[in-house]
Every structure is written in structure tokens, then in C-alpha cells.
Amino acid sequence: MSSPVWLITGASNGFGLAMCLHVLRAGHQVIGSVRNKTKAAPAVEQINQAGGSVIELDMTESQSSITEKISALGRIDYLVNVAGYSILAACEVITDNDATLQMTTNFFGPLYTMQAVLPVMRAQKSGTIVNISSGAARDPLPACSLYSASKAALEAASEGLSKEVAPHNIQVLIVEPGNFRTNFVGALAEASPDPASVPPHYDDPVGMVMRKFLTVHQKQPGDPQKGVERIFEAVTGTGMAGPLMGKVTRLVLGSDAYARMKKSCDKWAGELSLQEDVALSTNYE
């Protein structure tokens, strides 16, 4: 029996590259995707030398283009949607171009990759889709409204999809990482406006959050290698996270993410209990 085949987007750096290399070390087959092989040459070389392969795939491509490229790959056992980015800005000043690019990259692109792999997974009667989200989807911060919206959309689609494909033995896992020591914050700085440009009436809290984000580059507590190990374990049913397989919809990674999600869930549970009578009062008598 041939080893499983993984398609991992965003393989040029960070979680995507680390995931490719970890999976290859486990003896599985890997197809990594990058936007541009020339610009991602160091990552492409690492993946190729480790025994994997790389294709060019941009999350902003059309649905038909993404479908054509993925359909040509044949068997896919695991799809891991890592590709994504964030901008920081006050909601009021987000431009049409920024909104479109953010939603296309973080939501529509992954949506199209999922749609592209589902026919072959259904035919195989097996498959796993992993979508890398963020705690921002469930606990949006100031300056993160657009990014949070893109990840919340991805999570909602993932949850709905998981119920649709369960009868076909296809699993969907949402991963919510905290602050890991990747290039995410560095890319954030490039994509976002200068914090000094934030309108004075939004400096507190938008400007404050932006400045705080930009100071943590390479100081994040999360180890990407440990993060990808837990993801691999959770979807293959092995190691420390293996017992979670099929039992959790979301995999929370990082002590900071765990504390943030617990606080958010506790807050929502408290708000829900306050409004029980109001909620139940709106039914017909």
C-alpha cells in the first residue's frame, strides 16, 4: 500500500514549510504549494531534497484555476490549508482592495482547495482536511476585525462541511494556534499600515494593539516544530494528540491560545446564561 499523500498550502515558510518537512520525515508523500517557486527557492529546495514536490498555487487564483491544478494531482489523503496572512487596521479605514484580498486569501482560496479535493476524497471514501485558523476567529481584537472575519468565515464553513462529509469518512479539523515563532508578524508588518497613520480617535485601542503586535517578532512563545507535530498526531491518530482524533472540532495550540480561548468561552457562557429568559420569551404562546 502506498504512503498517504499530503497537499500543504503556504509551504514557502512558517507552519507550511515545517509541516511539509515533518510529514516527509514520517515517510509520507508531500506536495507543497507556493505562490512563486523563484521567490520561495530556499523552501522549494528543502522540500525537494527531503523527497517532496512543489507546485505553484496562489490562494487568489480563480476557482477554476485552483480546481484544475489540484485535480491534476490525483490522490490526496490530507489537505492542509496553511496559506494566509493578516493586516492590522481600524475597521473604519479598511479599503475595498484590502478587504477583498484578505477574504480571498484566507477564505475563498481555502474554500476552493477544499472543493477541489472533495471529489477524490469521496471516491476514496477517506480523507482529512485541516484548516489553519486563529484564536482571532473566536476572540477578535481591536485592529483585527477583517482578519478575524476571514478566519471566522473559514471556521464556520469548516464546521458545516464536517457534517456534510462525515458519511463519506472525511474528517475536517480546525487548528487555532497562538503566537508561534514564524514569519507571521514580519509579514504582518509589511501588509499593515504604519501604526502612526492610525486616526487619533482610534489610537486607543487600535494603535496600541498594532504597536504591541509589531514588537513580538521572534519573541513568540510557540515552537512551530512542536505545533506541526501535534497537528500530525491529531490527524493520524498517533502520539500525544492522537487520542483527540475524531473527538475535537478544534485543535488549540499554545498556552496563550488555550488561555485566550478559555476566557472567551467562559465569557460567552456567562452572557448566554444572562439572557435565557429573554431568548425563551420570543416563542409563540
From TrEMBL:
List, alphabetically, the Pfam families matched. adh_short
**What sections of the sequence does the record tag as coiled-coil?**
none
Q: Which domain of life is it from?
A: Eukaryota
Q: Where is the signal peptide?
A: none
Q: Which UniProt keywords apply?
A: Oxidoreductase
Which GO terms label this protein's molecular function in UniProt? Answer: oxidoreductase activity
State whether keyword Flavoprotein applies: no
Q: Where are the transmembrane segments?
A: none
Family of the protein in this entry: Belongs to the short-chain dehydrogenases/reductases (SDR) family.
Q: What is the recorded name of this protein?
A: Oxidoreductase claN
Q: Which organism is it from?
A: Penicillium diatomitis
